[in-house]
Amino acid sequence: MMDSERLVEAFDERAKRREGRRDFFRAFGAAAVMAGGITLVSKTAPVNAQSAPALTDADILNFALNLEYLEAQFYVYAATGAGLPASLLGGTGTQGAVNGGRQVNFTDPAVAAYAREIAADERAHVEFLRTALGNAAVAQPTIDVGVGPNTAFSAAARAAGLIGAGQTFDPYANDENFLLGAFIFEDVGVTAYKGASPLITDKNFLEAAAGILAVEAYHAAIVRTTLYAKGIATPSLIAATEAISDARDSLDGADDIDQGVRPIGQLSNIAPLDPNGIAYSRSAGQTLNIVYLNNMAVTGGGFFPNGVNGTIRMSAAN
């Protein structure tokens, strides 16, 4: 099949998805009117403002800081064999320890270079947010990025069907496992920042959040691109991203928007977008569903065994 024909097929497929989404919203909107005016909520919309507590910019940035602690610890361990220094862990709330990992024995020089670069970026994000928040910065909560049958990584892999009961998924075992571990985090970070950005009122903080969002998107793209490229020779890697994507969808609500790197025809799916070519959003509650590995309203679990620090702590009830 010619490349031009593949492109036409891909565009036709996106058009069908876009029209299907519009039909859904039309039907939902009509039902809402008949029911007396229900507020529409999706992955691209914040929760009903009348039922949600007022949040400050500091609340939102501290929520982001919790996520940056998690990403930074994973990448810094993978790249260097040690976690963040103690000077970057203190703050308000209960400071927790890290069930940490270890350095990956990378065999692909490109993946090793990506790991070192992302680790440096994530540490810089922690430092920046802590400086911006000053004395209001939350401490690092308890974090699980360790290895074992009962760790968060193994629970996530088990939920995706990648391993069986009692088995261990080790994201530090090799290049491919590291990339799959990174895949769990990166898409979530992008959607979380996009969902939180409209809630920030201070222009300077909003600009900073947009800058971090852009960096997280670059990180997600390189992880997805590398997994797709390696998946050409090892199709099980592409299948694993689809399984992880399905598991995330099972946690954060009814919408089936999350996407792996499966190609459309012969095209890759590096950027997970809605039918309009726009990256989708997650609310704070949906983000916590994934990192807590729970689709109910809870205040801890998964990668944050005791929950995150700060005002925003509860996941959504899905």
From TrEMBL:
Matching InterPro entries: Ferritin-like_SF, Pigment-catalase-like, TAT_signal
- Keyword terms, alphabetized: Membrane, Transmembrane, Transmembrane helix
Q: Which PANTHER family match?
A: DESICCATION-LIKE PROTEIN, OS05G0151100 PROTEIN
- Superkingdom classification of source: Bacteria
According to UniProt, the name of this protein is Ferritin-like domain-containing protein
- Transmembrane annotation, as ranges: 24-42
